[in-house]
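Input (structure):
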């Protein structure tokens, strides 16, 4: 239990100092002999993190972590957390344009789809 809490705390510290897109694509594996191990999904993220290692180590040390280095591992099986998609809504101008276009078309599935989209509320 203590080890899980320690890993969770390290993950939070790392997420606090790393750029958001890299922190979201990374997972803390552990801390051994002052070396923080981080798993990433691909080589591109690993390369960027490796460039930032000196800065990240200093920021982690400043936040109270006893880290002297960071080791980045590429783990293909590590899944990247995707942000949840936000539903998009059409503005009034777009809805009016779709309505106009649907009125110029003959009866068809496209006309029905455009009409339905133009009637959607914001």
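Output (sequence):
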């Amino acid at each position: 239990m203590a080890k899980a809490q320690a890993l969770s705390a390290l993950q939070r510290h790392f997420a606090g100092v790393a750029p958001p897109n890299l922190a979201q694509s990374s997972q803390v594996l552990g801390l051994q002999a002052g070396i923080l191990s981080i798993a990433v999904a691909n080589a591109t993220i690993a390369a960027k993190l490796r460039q930032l290692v000196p800065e990240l180590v200093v920021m982690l040390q400043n936040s109270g972590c006893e880290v002297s280095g960071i080791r980045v591992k590429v783990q293909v099986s590590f899944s990247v957390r995707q942000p949840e998609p936000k539903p998009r809504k059409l503005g009034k101008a777009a809805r009016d344009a779709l309505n106009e276009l649907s009125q110029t078309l003959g009866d068809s599935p496209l006309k029905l789809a455009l009409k339905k989209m133009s009637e959607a509320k914001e």
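Notes: Residues 87-122 form one domain. The two ends are 47 Å apart (CA to CA).
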